[in-house]
Model the fold of this input.
Amino acid sequence: MKTTANDPTKLTCGLPLLSSQSQGWENILVEQFQHPSGEGRTRYGDEHAICLSLAPRPVRFLQIKDGKTHTSLYGKGDIAITPAEMPFFARWEGEDHYMQIRVASRFIQQVAREALEINPDRLELLPEFRTRDPQIEAIGLMLLAELQQGNCGSRLYIESLTNILAVHLIRQYTTTQPQRPVYEGGLPQRQLSQVLDYMNDHLEQDIKLADLAALLNMSQFHFSHLFKQAIGTSPYQYLLQQRVEQAKQLLKEGDRSIMDIALLCGFNSHSHLSKQFRQLTGVTPKTYRAN
Done:
């Protein structure tokens, strides 16, 4: 699912915008908006929508969805959830600043079936007018950082966040409460070696979580848990560490430009490499090469 802020399914009644940003990845769209006082209505046919308030001062909202009306102040960190196919109307007083996360409903169904062994036909996401959820807020802010930085993060990172968000929504906001699966022991040594070899052989590529899980014929969520149990870190963090290690070798071995090294190691820009390199080593690539 790759859409834009001009998606025709978004019916906003010609709302004036102070600013907006939008970035789509597979199965998820992240948007950031600032609106003056106004009202609007919307309905998404195949996406669940999560709104996270970023407003520095509370904004008074009237919301109508699922035949119910709710009025309250919304402040920074407040969250609203609107399931797919549900008409939604809102009127607000004061400048509103918020981010919206739209997740493909078919992806939620896939995660329910593969990771939590739930019949997706029985899955129903429940609407929320106003709630607090530290986990959704944390995931939202990480996705917002990727949006603001121009999508410089790896696909593996975005997919990991999307999977965690999907499982959390199913566990906390559906009519069917799943049993939490128990993972013991992590990946067997043979499977772990297979995955590590694949990652190390494809460092320069945009590795997908789905590709890694498919190597072992398991769900993405199941794979991520077993991988972390086996090695003590997430697939994304391991991949990042290996890319930085390869960059360190290339910086010492020759006179390639830092931009060339960034691309060879799977980073999409000089600045992306520099940021991650400094976070893991405490110095910039240029300083590391000079020492």
Q: What stands out?
A: Confidence is low (pLDDT under 50) at residues 1-14. The chain has two domains: 19-172, 182-291.
